[in-house]
Design brief:
Length: 281
């Protein structure tokens, strides 16, 4: 099956080198501490084309990390994760020898909210000597390559998204009920349309999708499993190897990502700012 690659563009202020033919590009010739409107426009243009952008040697302070995020859009504060007290927009994703954590399943962030995030900017603070890569998948291509009969099954259908599977497991019953009140289940289209590009993408993911609207979880399980599997096709993916000061910036509306948990007990600390999005349509 041939997949047509993204055609590289010329930019005046940045250099953009695709990582694969379908998703991801490494951006060089830029210092994210020195921003202006023209530079942001070029970065936004490259972002829409490649869905995930990668930068090296961007040793930003916490304030500069927040400032770059705000140059792209309004930032959110995550309801359930650890953040930095002085900069609550920054969440901390950390594994240590004593506490190993990794988002080791394909997912789109925080789809349990009414308006899930537009995207994120993730900075590698402490990076293991080996392992701990992150992968991204192009969910527009994942949708495009579905068989016609499955496309017909999901056309116009909605899925129910909830925090319960991912974040509710370690809550008390009282905490879970309060969280359900604050963050009720949401109904989002299985196929969403990108508000900038107009392209369609598959918009369900294993950690946050409970069922398909109008079906019980048991009834919807075979179809959901088939849709979840689309992200795992290698030809839809790219993989990024972290170094200290590396940044990954992805469009949450048309990608999924997976943190590879192969760094054992080595220390890994990532810090992320997340942009507010709109309601999927």
């Amino acid at each position: 099956m041939r997949i047509d690659a993204v055609t590289p563009k010329h930019y005046d202020r940045i250099r953009v080198e695709p990582v694969t033919g379908t998703i991801g590009a490494e951006v060089s010739g830029v210092d994210l501490r020195e921003l202006d409107d023209e530079l942001i426009r070029e970065l936004q243009d490259a972002w829409m084309d490649h869905k995930a952008l990668f930068f090296r040697d961007q040793n930003l302070t916490h304030a500069q990390h927040v400032a770059y995020g705000r140059a792209l859009g309004e930032l959110e504060i995550h309801p359930f994760t650890r953040n930095i007290a002085e900069h609550p927009e920054i969440i901390v994703l950390e594994s240590t020898p004593e506490s190993f954590e990794a988002a080791e399943t394909w997912h789109t962030d925080v789809t349990f909210r009414e308006c899930p995030p537009l995207g994120s900017v993730l900075l590698g603070r402490i990076v293991p000597a080996y392992g701990g890569d992150t992968c991204w998948a192009n969910m527009e291509l994942a949708y495009e390559r579905l068989p016609d009969d499955i496309k017909e099954q999901i056309d116009g259908r909605y899925a129910i998204h909830s925090f319960v599977k991912a974040f509710g497991r370690n809550m008390s019953e009282a905490e879970r009920e309060q969280a359900r009140h604050d963050y009720p289940d949401q109904k989002h289209p299985i196929v969403r349309t990108h508000p900038v590009t107009g392209r369609k993408s598959l918009y369900v993911n294993r950690p946050f999708t409970l069922t398909i609207d109008g079906m019980t979880p048991e009834e919807s399980r075979p179809l959901r499993r088939r849709l979840y599997e689309q992200a795992s096709e290698p030809e839809f993916q790219c993989r990024f190897r972290w170094r200290p000061g590396s940044i990954a910036q992805w469009d949450n509306r048309c990608t999924q990502h997976y943190a590879v948990p192969d760094h054992g007990g080595l220390h890994r600390r990532m810090e992320r700012v997340t942009l507010l999005g709109d309601r999927p349509v």
